[in-house]
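User: Please look over both lines:
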Amino acid sequence: MLRTVLRREVVALTRLLVVVLTILLALLELGYRGEAPTSGMRQELLTGLMFGAGFVMFGAILRTLLKGQRPRKAEIAWFLVWLSFFATHPIGLPVWEGVGLMGNLIFLGLFVFIELSRLELGGGFTLSPALLFTFSFILLITIGTALFMLPKAAVRPLGLIEALFTSTSAVCVTGLTVFDVGTTLTPMGLWILLLLVQLGGLGVMTFTSFFAFFFKGSNSLEEQLRIRDLSNTTLGGARRFIVQVILFTLAVEAIGALFIFQAVPEDQFASFSDRLFFAVFHAISAFNNAGFSTYASGLYDPVMRFNYALQWVVAVMIVFGGLGFGIIFNFANYLRFWVRARVRKWTLGVPCERYPRVVTLSTKLVLFTTAGLLLFGTIAFWVFERDNALREHGGWFGQLTTSFFGSVTPRTAGFNTVNYGTLTVPTLMITILLMYIGASPGSTGGGIKTSTAAVALFNIFSTGRGRERVETGGREIGSMTVRRAFATIVLSLIFLGVSVTVVASLEKDLGLLPIAFECFSAFSTVGLSTGITAELDDAARVALTLVMFVGRVSALTLLIGVLKQVEVSNYRYPKEDILIN
């Protein structure tokens, strides 16, 4: 018995060492300019890692066979390739010199992915979905900070606060920066930024679950329960929902990158690869509502300011990313039923069959609220800026495009086609309102969400009319939903008030409106700024970093994760009204 336990501990320790050392070796070899600290013993490290990885994989396959189970295809394929190393090197040195350092690191990286896929969602810890969601962002921000501090990630060494701020802004898909990412970050740094944006936009647990399913082929019941809580889907559809989210995201980003590539002029880029990278970078940034751009002044750069085709493509991608995956899939399901019924009627002459109600109340609220906010924002932007920021856009189409973009981008995207430091006060106040409401639930955007604003508005009307229930669209909104909406609004306003006060006390030379605009932008993960971000000192940057983090995971989620959840009581106290107004 003791021998078995020791054998398991040795295998577990070897697995951990190989995974950790592989990641460290990759970071040191790829993150340093010139000779890395590990260059002198690179061959020995690769050899040791290859032997250790092969030992772990062989043990995993053998244990699976002894249990009478079928090994995973990914494990068998990896081990067969590993054996081929010995066939090509008779002396037994399992390092494939033909593929070089990068090839060996990629092969070891596949081993890391396979090993990480063994981890169950939650890892045996009794963490609530709220805390699991929160800790996943903390872990990703920490990793991103370390990556940005690698010498090869930037043209100059980044300080801890700069790296932390940039990593948080990327993971929280905010877009606020304290330096020009296009000129400060190297190609490696820009790819790190894109990876953090993609992981942060869709959620770390989404990708974790996807890769676990990809390599394992299934998820445990506990994992599916956690995915259900995180994605707000049924148990049966949780895994399918995760796969749909990943595939839909990659498809939309690929299509968006193609349109952006066609919209930008070829003569503005030094090479085809630069133009392609620009398209991919802005497609990922737009769909994830991040707002990062390789231009110092964003899309306000003179080269892109009047490129209305590009702005419409980016705006559409922002809207898609801000609607929420559940809303998009639900509405797509409704369209599928509707189109199929119409096609059957036109081709076969069969009357349109009655199909079940598939458009949920959440979908209706999100779509109508989004459309209303876009229309309101476009009209308001044109009214208050037609003699100011819109003056340089002479034609009606240019003014319409800029006004519409000015209504879309506060919905947590952060791209700018105007200088927000020169906008009128009414426009800034309306922009703050749009930023505060933000995107829709289950999306890549932030804010209190459109559904929260809609429920709060319906509650106000119901209270004003003396109704005890909140009803709309032939449905009654649950009391728990109303209470969560109220708690979200109150907690966010309290936190924003404290944030503005703290930043204002740290930056006494800046005006209140620019500071409030910056805090609302950070909390709603928007990324718009009046131009004061780079001027903030380290203390204010740390404060804004915390604001971005709380805004991304939401104050209510933190409260739910921290406070102990109580069981439903089987009793009720007598009711008593309290004087309110």
